[in-house]
C-alpha cells in the first residue's frame, strides 16, 4: 500500500489521520512537540494560516491537502470568498466538516481528490494554502505543478512542510514515518527551490525554522 492509498484507508483516517489532525489543533501540545522534535516555532505556522483572513471579497482559495480543516478556522465571520477544501482522504474531509462554524457552511466546498490531479481548470484560484502536506505526498514536485496550473496569474501559494537535512532527530522521525507509509519521500530545502522554479513559480519566501520549511511563492 503506497502513501496515497494509506491516507485513503478509512481505518487509517479514523485513527492515525485523526490523531495527526488533532495534534496541530492543540496549540500548546503542538508547540512542545514542534520544538522538541523539529526544533521549530509552531506559532509561525499558525501565523502563516492567517493569509486566508486577508483575502479580499470575491477571492477563491484552494486548501490542499486540507487535513482536519484547521486553516478553515482562519476565515472571518461574513468573509465573502470561495473556499475549496480538498483532500484525498474522505475521513479527513469528514473531520474538517465537523469543525466548521455555523457561518462557514455556505462558504466552504469540500472535494475528495488527489493533489496530483486537481479537478479544476487552469487559472482558477487566487490563493492556494498547503500546510503540513508536501511531506505526506508521493510526488511533491507533481503536486506543485498541479497547484501552479490552477493558480491565476499573480496567484499565491503559501504553506510549509517537514524538510530533510535540517535537524537530525527530525530526519530520524521522518524515516520512521516513511517506513510506515505515512509520509512520502519529502525533500530538502534545495528540492523545494527546484519544485517551485520548475513549476514556473517565483519564490518570495523560502526559509527553514528547524526542520520545517515555510514558503510563499507566486505565479
TrEMBL record:
- Pfam families per UniProt: Methyltransf_11 (PF08241)
**Membrane spanning stretches:** none
One Gene Ontology molecular-function label: S-adenosylmethionine-dependent methyltransferase activity
Q: InterPro entries given for it?
A: Methyltransf_11, SAM-dependent_MTases_sf
Q: Which UniProt keywords apply?
A: Ubiquinone
User: Residues in domain Methyltransferase type?
Assistant: 62-158
* Name this polypeptide is given: Ubiquinone biosynthesis protein
Q: What is the lineage of its organism?
A: Bacteria, Bacillati, Actinomycetota, Actinomycetes, Mycobacteriales
Amino acid at each position: 500500500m503506497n502513501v496515497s492509498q494509506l491516507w485513503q484507508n478509512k481505518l487509517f483516517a479514523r485513527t492515525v489521520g485523526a490523531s495527526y489532525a488533532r495534534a496541530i489543533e492543540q496549540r500548546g501540545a503542538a508547540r512542545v512537540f514542534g520544538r522538541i522534535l523539529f526544533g521549530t516555532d509552531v506559532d509561525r505556522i499558525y501565523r502563516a494560516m492567517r493569509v486566508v483572513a486577508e483575502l479580499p471579497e470575491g477571492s477563491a482559495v484552494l486548501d490542499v491537502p486540507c487535513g482536519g480543516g484547521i486553516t478553515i478556522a482562519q476565515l472571518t465571520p461574513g468573509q465573502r470568498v470561495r473556499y475549496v477544501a480538498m483532500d484525498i482522504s474522505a475521513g479527513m474531509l469528514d473531520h474538517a466538516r465537523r469543525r466548521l462554524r455555523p457561518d462557514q457552511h455556505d462558504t466552504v466546498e469540500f472535494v475528495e481528490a488527489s493533489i496530483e490531479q486537481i479537478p479544476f481548470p487552469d487559472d482558477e484560484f487566487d490563493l492556494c494554502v498547503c500546510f503540513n502536506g508536501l511531506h505526506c505526498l508521493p510526488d511533491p514536485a507533481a503536486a506543485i505543478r498541479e497547484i501552479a496550473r490552477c493558480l491565476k496569474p499573480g496567484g499565491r501559494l503559501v504553506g510549509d512542510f517537514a524538510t530533510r537535512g535540517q535537524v537530525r532527530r527530525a530526519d530520524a522521525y521522518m524515516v520512521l514515518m516513511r517506513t510506515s507509509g505515512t509520509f512520502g519521500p519529502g525533500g530538502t530545502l534545495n528540492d523545494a527551490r527546484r519544485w517551485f522554479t520548475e513549476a514556473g513559480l517565483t519564490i518570495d519566501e523560502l526559509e527553514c525554522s528547524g526542520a520545517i520549511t515555510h514558503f510563499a511563492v507566486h505565479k
